[in-house]
Amino acid sequence: MASMVPYDRYARALRTWPFGGLGDFFEAPIESLSAPGSTFKMNVEDADDKYVVTAELPGVKRDEIDVELNEGRLSIGVQKKESDEDKGKNYLYKESSEWSATRGVYLKDAAVAGLTAKLEGGVLTVNVPKQAEQANVTKVSID
């Protein structure tokens, strides 16, 4: 009986043989490969006369968010910083830290006038009005 090996240890040893944890790398979801807090969820809705962009930003303050519309590209950037009161504490283990992330989407008929943004309950909502599409295509005749 002393030479018996519990089944869970035997199975664990077989999973890692001969290439160690290589199998775990390929079985892990892509999200686990990125650093925690390196991105946020964002939804874009086409609501007839405007686009409604929502971003889930729990724990992020208004002054840590940057929203820009540049030639149809809406960018939402977050620079989350650790507060001074957290720096003075003596943590044994801490999972929150400083991080930054930027997400963007191209909205071809976005108008600058009437652009609004609101942060409420950890969700940023950006309303981007649409403008009438302009014909930017010029037909060129071939000689």
Automatic annotation (TrEMBL):
InterPro entries: A-crystallin/Hsp20_dom, HSP20-like_chaperone, Small_HSP. It comes from the Bacteria. It comes from Thermophilibacter immobilis. Belongs to the small heat shock protein (HSP20) family. This is Hsp20 family protein. It holds the Pfam family HSP20. PROSITE patterns: SHSP (PS01031). Residues 33-143 form the SHSP domain.
